[in-house]
Design a protein that fits this description.
Blueprint (H helix, E strand, L loop, with lengths): L10 E4 L4 E4 L5 E2 L18 E9 L5 E4 L16 E10 L3 E2 L6 H13 L11 H4 L3 E29 L2 E23 L6 H4 L10 E2 L9 E2 L10 H16 L3 H5 L10 E18 L6 E8 L5 E3 L5 H21 L5 H31 L4 H9 L4 H5 L4 H28 L4 H30 L1 E2 L13
Parallel strand pairs: 7-12, 8-11
Antiparallel strand pairs: 1-2, 2-3, 4-5, 4-6, 5-11, 7-10, 8-9, 8-12, 12-13, 13-14, 13-15
Helix pairs in contact: 6-11, 7-10, 7-11, 10-11
Length: about 475
């Protein structure tokens, strides 16, 4: 990798200054100044980049380094067992977005987000955890789409009415379209969840031609999903956007063409390295669960999976609910019967929330819309039986049963006191208080669902590698 032109020492790219810095002699260089001139007839797409490969002995993830920095733990599973391999080479990407945010900027953004979550476990905010943030260049497919010719859509217009029949004239609506979409990007890693990558969008207009001098000081991963996997997604996004634009035009409304379409095609596909700060945190109670935090190294946008500490939740909830409960009892307009009906309504709302949350857990675990993961399943010849286990309906039913028992008991108790209609108000208050406690503790299952929703299993990346023929 690059050496300092003055002293020959290792250099690193500094996001804060956007310069390549030599710690030994203190020299700074523009990355472009250190770019070697390509040989005649040699294309950038066929250039190779070399780095040390570190393989995780637990999950199989591979990270590349481009200086003397050693990888001490795996960014994907948090394991400390990284094995160094020999020097490896891979095809250089076409584009790169250099890191704009420093690691300190990243840590500040993460701490700011976590500080807003009063129920987050304390270890998620601890200094040893935040120091594990690592800058990684993730492989992205960058797509340019266009349509520059005559586009035909069908429309109709009212003509006349005759008896019980209404006649419309059909029209072929021609439009000379000159439209392009540039820089749509999708990650090319099967284990980098699409919901993460789409939640931290990059401005690919700021990408520059690949220069290896942006790499020292950071890590990189290599794609294991073919770049053509997301071509249809890019076309769909462009088509929906253009439809929403054209359908409001008077010309299309005049002929009742409510859904004009433009048949875009992918004009160009490029491989890019995009900057991501990555953090994996193991659950302290279940070390097979991981929580991820991802920060866009260009814009600083944070996406973090933050679990809930049930002890914190129950203490704060009780501190808030008890005074509210007694305050409602003192209000003259609140009758004992009204309080009981309120607990019944609250129980029904909780059942609905639990049902919706359980569905979200199943959808996230299934990863139905993650094309990179689907490619991984096909590539590794995963059987249909294993695919079907992406949604475990039996476990879903068991979770719901444990949630609903407490809520159903609360509803039955409240209905019982309403039906029996005792004279003493004390019965209403006692049943209402008991129902509120049951509702409160039913949220223990909801907290478990939330923590399951935001957690990830330990990845298994032993078999990696995209389409080598692309």
């Amino acid at each position: 990798m690059s050496k300092c032109p003055h002293c020959g020492a290792e250099v690193q790219f500094q996001p804060g200054t956007q310069l390549v810095h030599c710690e030994y002699c203190g020299s700074d260089f523009q990355p472009e100044e250190m770019q070697e001139a390509p040989k005649k007839g040699k294309k950038v797409a066929t250039e190779q980049i070399k780095g040390n490969a570190y393989v995780c002995s637990q999950c199989g993830a591979t990270l590349l380094t481009f200086d003397e920095t050693a990888v001490t733990f795996c960014s994907y599973c948090g394991s400390q067992n990284m094995l160094e391999e020999k020097m490896v080479s891979q095809d250089a990407p076409d584009l790169i977005i250099p890191f704009q945010k420093t690691r300190d900027d990243c840590i500040k953004s993460y701490k700011k987000k976590v500080s807003h979550s009063i129920f987050a476990p304390s270890y998620m905010k601890s200094q040893p955890v935040v120091q594990k943030f690592r800058g990684i260049y993730m492989p992205y497919g960058v797509y340019n789409l266009s349509y520059k010719e005559d586009c035909v859509n069908q429309g109709s217009k009212y003509n006349h009415r005759s008896g019980n029949y209404i006649y419309y004239d059909k029209y072929a609506i021609h439009a000379n379209i000159d439209s392009t979409y540039k820089g749509m990007s999708f990650d090319l890693l099967s284990n980098f969840y699409d919901e993460y990558s789409q939640s931290i969008p990059f401005d690919s207009r700021l990408a520059v031609p690949f220069n290896a001098n942006y790499l020292p000081g950071f890590y990189a991963d290599s794609k294991d999903v073919p770049i053509g996997t997301y071509s249809d997604d890019a076309i769909k996004i462009a088509s929906v956007d253009s439809t929403n634009y054209f359908k409001h035009k008077a010309f299309y409304r005049k002929y009742s063409c409510s859904c004009p379409t433009v048949p875009y095609h992918v004009e160009e596909k490029k491989l890019g390295f995009f900057p991501v700060y990555f953090l994996s945190v193991r659950d302290q109670k279940d070390d097979k669960k991981l929580y991820y935090a991802i920060i866009n190294g260009q814009t600083g946008k944070v996406v973090a999976d933050l679990p809930i500490d049930f002890i914190k939740y129950i203490i704060i909830s009780i501190l808030l609910s008890v005074p509210i409960f007694f305050l409602l009892m003192k209000l003259p307009t609140i009758t004992p019967t009204a309080i009981v009906w309120f607990t019944i309504l609250a129980s029904i709302v909780c059942i609905f929330i639990c049902f919706k949350q359980g569905g979200k857990v199943q959808e996230r675990e299934a990863r139905w819309d993650d094309k990179g993961y689907d490619y991984y399943l096909r590539q590794n010849q995963v059987t249909d039986a294993k695919k079907s286990r992406r949604v475990n309906l039996l476990r879903k039913k068991k979770i719901k049963l444990s949630q609903y028992i407490k809520l159903l008991i609360a509803i039955l108790l409240s209905l019982g006191v309403v039906i029996l209609h005792p004279v003493d108000d004390l019965y209403y208050y006692l049943i209402s208080f008991a129902s509120c406690i049951l509702i409160l503790f039913s949220f223990y299952d909801l907290v478990k669902l939330h923590n399951q929703l935001v957690s990830r299993p330990i990845p298994q990346l032993h078999k990696r590698g995209g389409d080598e023929h692309e």
